[in-house]
């Protein structure tokens, strides 16, 4: 009876097995390199978000036992005058900072696009963006302070004898002051973005419009603005979201506890959670802010189809 010798792998099978081992090894290395990012994403984004959603339906002071209250936290916030004031102030801040800030940044970018040394101006305008928001708020606090302590008020009074408002204390002016600081600190980012968008416009297209007799205003309306409309849309979405999330500069610049004119939604969330220790209420307010932000962003994406022109 003969002995059966197992067949040896063919020449084609060996490379296939080697390729399989290489793929498995590469998969393990990919998992190893992705693990820190995935763990960080789960630990600092997914889990906190899920915990906040659950906590919004509970009553909890941070130490005691949690109790389920359903939609009571949402109903309490929607009927709370302080939350209504915070929403109104946030909307006013968005209406002041977004159109004014973007229009000013676009004008500056149009001017810088015509001069030499753009890199230098980019750096100069971008400096407030990379400066600490606390430092920016303290600087503007010195400028806008009332009486003899404020640089602006004191200078105008000494030179012209005009008494200016208490920018940081008058409820009617405090949101305007916050808007000025916000526009100044974010102006450089929008200028750099718009300048990059302007430099993507083909010079031949601009020249053709001028040859056809189009003036500066017509060139801007018919060529420049449509060509940079995706950039304008991107900056608008980011600016609106940023205005809804305003907190740090307001917290340092003004004390919203003593001035309802500076109370925003994010400060309402902070006040409920870390001063009153009502974490359920705070989470409910945060979810309402999330829904408002999503709705406004969806509206922007819906409207942009009519005004934003993409190259095809």
Automatic annotation (TrEMBL):
Residues 87-300 form the ABC transmembrane type-1 domain. Keywords: Cell membrane, Membrane, Transmembrane, Transmembrane helix, Transport. One of its GO terms (biological process) is transmembrane transport. It is a multi-pass membrane protein. It is found in: Cell membrane. Gene3D superfamilies: MetI-like (1.10.3720.10). The chain crosses the membrane at residues 27-58, 93-112, 124-143, 173-198, 219-244, 284-303. GO terms for cellular component: plasma membrane. InterPro entries: ABC_transporter_permease, MetI-like, MetI-like_sf. The keyword Heme does not apply. It comes from the Bacteria. Pfam families: BPD_transp_1. Belongs to the binding-protein-dependent transport system permease family. This is Sugar ABC transporter permease.
């Amino acid at each position: 009876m003969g002995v059966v010798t197992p067949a040896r792998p063919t020449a084609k099978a060996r490379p296939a097995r080697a390729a399989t081992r290489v793929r498995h090894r590469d998969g393990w290395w990919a998992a190893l390199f992705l693990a820190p990012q995935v763990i960080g994403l789960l630990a600092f984004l997914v889990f906190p978000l899920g915990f906040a959603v659950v906590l919004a339906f509970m009553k909890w002071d941070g130490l005691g036992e949690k109790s389920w209250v359903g939609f009571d936290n949402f109903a309490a916030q929607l009927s709370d005058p302080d939350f209504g004031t915070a929403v109104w102030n946030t909307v006013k801040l968005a209406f002041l900072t977004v159109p004014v800030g973007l229009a000013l940044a676009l004008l500056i970018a149009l001017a810088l696009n015509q001069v030499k040394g753009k890199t230098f101006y980019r750096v100069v305008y971008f400096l407030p963006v990379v400066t600490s928001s606390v430092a920016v708020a303290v600087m503007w606090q010195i400028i806008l302070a009332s009486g003899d302590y404020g640089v602006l008020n004191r200078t105008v009074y000494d030179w012209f004898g005009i008494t200016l408002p208490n920018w940081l204390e008058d409820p009617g002016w405090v949101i305007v002051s916050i808007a000025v600081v916000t526009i100044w600190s974010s102006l450089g980012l929008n200028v750099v973005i718009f300048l990059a968008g302007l430099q993507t416009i083909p010079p031949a297209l601009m020249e053709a419009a001028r040859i056809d007799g189009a003036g500066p205003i017509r060139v801007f309306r018919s060529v420049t603005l449509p060509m940079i409309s995706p950039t304008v849309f991107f900056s608008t979405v980011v600016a609106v979201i940023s205005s809804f999330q305003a907190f740090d500069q307001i917290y340092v610049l003004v004390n919203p506890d003593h001035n309802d004119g500076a109370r925003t939604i994010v400060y309402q969330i902070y006040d409920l959670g870390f001063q009153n220790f009502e974490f359920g209420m705070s989470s409910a307010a945060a979810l309402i802010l999330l829904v408002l932000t999503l709705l406004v962003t969806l509206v922007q994406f819906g409207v942009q189809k009519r005004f934003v022109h993409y190259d095809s």
